[in-house]
Amino acid sequence: MEASDVISELQCVDFGEEEIFTSCSNEVDTKFDLTIGHIEDIIMEDKFQTLQNNFLEKFYSEFDDTEENKFIYTDIHKDYINLIEKCLEEELSGRMPDFSMQEFTRQLAERKDDLEGEIFEMLLTFSDFVAFKDMFLDYKAAKEGKTIDLSDGLTVTSVDMPSGCDLFSLNGQSISKD
Amino acid sequence: MGLLTILKKMKQKEKEVRLLMLGLDNAGKTTILKKFNGEDINTISPTLGFNIKTLEHRGFKLNVWDVGGQRSLRSYWRNYFECTDGLIWVVDSADRMRLQDCKQELHSLLLEERLAGSTLLVFANKQDLPGSLSSEDIRKTLDLDNIKSHHWRILPCSAVTGENLLDGVDWIIDDIASRIFTMD
């Protein structure tokens, strides 16, 4: 359903007697706040971080630090949005037995001018393409600029040196490439 | 539409405008974008993907999407239609050979449902080149007078000299603003 449909639908709802509206509005508010609280929890949890990291790991090699964007970034972004939406819906349903995404988005539309706070900024960031690209480029830079970890055993690594000499690191000596 | 998309549409900031810049390859879309943004325009190569720039202009935040125009890339255009407030169609006024192709592509875009309601600005670019057609000629050749579905305007311009770029952007913002932001 389009957001505008939600809004126009809302405007058509006739609550009849005002008392009924008032008496249940507190309950609705409480449930809405509870849902927001759960979303805050969900995106701070390890499970969510892992999900995000796995996604970054899977696709970061597609990204290049150039101004022009590849079409594939758009596809990856769509997948990312779907993944996060699916995760949120599943987690919320697990925590709130009577959770309905449709109901929740309707409540969001109803409060659209009062949605303040970090959580909304964060949710908006997920669907922002430029933020999405930056996240991948940061991940890639961290990944490729990383100190080589030799703790697993014998590894031989060559390091690019401007003078043309070859440097090798043998077992246990870690060389950071910068 | 999922939660994040709904939220995004809901919270679209006031005075924030999304412009989609399309046209055949070599029309000068990226050059217009960079010139408008005050960047160097001497080293621009054909766009094989897309560019995005966020510009502040007259208190508006403009999100400009410039998508490559080569024939093989045109099927990707559809991925960028969503939420477009204004379409900037860029024409190489010196490329007489491809004006029919240009006309066809433009008119098929205007049938797109997701672009319905967007404002159309046609830039008759490369006016600095000798032999370029006037915006009046382009207007006739592209059959612009038959467009009833969109607010439109054509302006002669040059991405190299910067002629009329500002006027065009000002017009499209004004048209969009009069449609969207006076509603509240």
TrEMBL record, chain A:
InterPro entries the record matches: ARL2BP (IPR038849), BART_dom (IPR023379), BART_sf (IPR042541)
Cytoplasm is among the record's keywords: yes
Superkingdom per UniProt: Eukaryota
Name under which the protein is recorded: ADP-ribosylation factor-like protein 2-binding protein
Annotated GO CC locations: centrosome; cilium; mitochondrial intermembrane space; nucleus
Family recorded in the similarity comment: Belongs to the ARL2BP family.
Primary residence: cytoplasm
Species in which this protein is naturally found: Lottia gigantea (Giant owl limpet)
Pfam families, alphabetized: ARL2_Bind_BART
Function recorded in the entry: Plays a role as an effector of the ADP-ribosylation factor-like protein 2, ARL2.
GO BP terms: maintenance of protein location in nucleus
UniProt KW keywords: Cell projection, Cilium, Cytoplasm, Cytoskeleton, Mitochondrion, Nucleus
Subcellular location: Cytoplasm, Cytoskeleton, Cilium basal body; Cytoplasm, Cytoskeleton, Microtubule organizing center, Centrosome; Cytoplasm; Nucleus
Residue ranges of domain BART in the record: 32-144
From TrEMBL, chain B:
Annotated GO MF terms: GTP binding; GTPase activity; metal ion binding
Binding site for Mg(2+): 30, 47
InterPro entries, alphabetized: Arl2 (IPR045873), ARL2/3 (IPR044612), P-loop_NTPase (IPR027417), Small_GTP-bd (IPR005225), Small_GTPase_ARF/SAR (IPR006689)
Sections of the chain in a coiled coil: none
A Pfam family per the record: Arf
SMART domains: ARF (SM00177), SAR (SM00178)
Family: Belongs to the small GTPase superfamily. Arf family.
Protein name according to UniProt: ADP-ribosylation factor-like protein 2
Protein's organism: Lottia gigantea (Giant owl limpet)
